[in-house]
Specification:
By secondary structure, the chain is an alpha/beta fold. It has 13 helices and 9 strands.
Length: 400
């Protein structure tokens, strides 16, 4: 049984113990709150989900036009650096072609109006999808369409034919109009030239045509009568092809109508406006057919200002009643030309070489032209289209 002193002592100690216990509890609570605050700071904050903005079907036109304008600005800047001071001399030869630049713009508008492209990709957690931020590819999604639009505009400008008014020139070339009359009588098959007179003459005339690239040349064949094979033309490829097709028997070759051949050649030159007109008449015989007399045709040629050069081919050293060199000399003399004699292939080539040297050259002035600049717009258009294809098939490829 305890004494009164012990009870008093016990009662005096209890308030102190209770105060200490209360103090410890307050400290623990404070520590707990601090831990909670630290944990709250470490815990990521939940962001409010972004609301999806409903955009109309014409919304893509804005970024497309923006990218197109950027591409056109860069292209124009590059062209300005290339042309520099010549930029102010650029003129548009066909400005109405610039209206074609509106076609791709109308095509884009119609595409968005008639066939808008809604989102077709489904995602199981829309809340998580809304928290995602768009990447660089999302911002550049409409870049290929902008590049294509810019390329179309550059092509429209190229179709308008931009030119430089500073670099103008007048096209001039030296040339004359020539009519070649070749004999297709039977005597042209003689083989004193290889392989025969006709083939040797055709070979030399073909070389003669190739060495007169700026001349208009016509072709006439004659035998018992004369026929026009080709009018005056600068298309020497076609002319040489027609010359190659000439064969003995193409027309009646029983006689030699030199007068008719010269007359048809003059008719070919009658349409010419050149200051110099020439007839080259190649034959191996004399005129023995009816129709136009060669001397009369020569006088007509002299009145028209046409010079006639005659070429007598073949070996006629033994003399023959089938040739009349004097008549050919008269024809050439009346018109101010020259009469040649070619006994073999070498002398025939020498004859035509001398003929090339004698032929007068006249300067023909063409229309004044400007320097073309359309290619400067085609290259950036090509590069933009190439970049468009690369982006559509790589980083900016779309999956429906």
């Amino acid at each position: 049984m305890s004494s009164p002193e012990t009870a008093t002592s016990t009662s005096q100690q209890e308030p102190g113990a209770s105060s200490a216990s209360a103090t410890m509890t307050a400290l623990e609570r404070e520590e707990a709150r601090k831990r909670q605050r630290r944990q709250a700071r470490r815990r990521p904050r939940r962001r409010a989900p972004r609301r999806l903005v409903r955009r109309g079907p014409f919304y893509p036109l804005l970024p497309i036009f923006g990218f197109a304008l950027l591409a056109l600005t860069l292209s124009a800047g590059t062209l300005a650096l290339i042309l520099r001071q010549d930029l102010r001399h650029v003129v548009i030869d066909r400005p109405w072609w610039l209206l074609t630049a509106a076609l791709p713009v109308l095509a884009l508008v119609l595409r968005q109006a008639l066939a808008p492209r809604p989102a077709t990709l489904r995602f199981s957690r829309t809340l998580s999808a809304r928290r995602l931020r768009p990447g660089l590819a999302a911002y550049l999604a409409w870049l290929p369409d902008g590049l294509r639009l810019a390329a179309a505009v550059l092509l429209a400008v190229a179709l308008a034919r931009p030119q430089s008014s500073r670099f103008t020139d007048r096209i001039e070339h030296e040339g004359i109009d020539i009519a070649v009359a070749i004999d297709l009588s039977k005597s042209m098959e003689l083989r004193d030239m290889y392989p025969n007179r006709l083939e040797a003459a055709k070979a030399v005339i073909d070389e003669f045509i190739t060495r007169r690239p700026h001349d208009r040349i016509g072709l006439v064949a004659f035998g018992s009568y004369a026929s026009s094979v080709a009018p005056l033309t600068i298309d020497h490829g076609v002319l040489r092809g027609l010359l190659e097709k000439l064969q003995l028997g193409s027309i009646d070759g029983s006689r030699t109508a030199i007068g008719a051949g010269l007359g048809v050649a003059l008719n070919r030159l009658d349409e010419s406006e050149a200051s110099s007109k020439v007839v080259v008449l190649v034959t191996d015989g004399k005129h023995n057919a009816g129709g136009i007399n060669p001397d009369t045709a020569a006088e007509e040629a002299a009145e028209r200002g046409v010079i006639v050069y005659t070429v007598l081919i073949g070996d006629h050293r033994m003399g023959s009643d089938r040739v009349d060199p004097a008549q050919l000399e008269r024809i050439s003399s009346i018109t101010g030309g020259y009469a040649y004699k070619a006994k073999d292939p070498d002398s025939l080539r020498t004859t035509f070489q001398d003929l090339l040297d004698k032929l007068e050259k006249s300067t023909v002035a063409g229309e004044q032209v400007r320097a073309e600049l359309f290619h400067l717009f085609l290259w950036p258009a090509f590069l933009l289209l190439l970049l468009d294809v690369l982006l559509r098939n790589t980083r900016l490829r779309r999956f429906p």
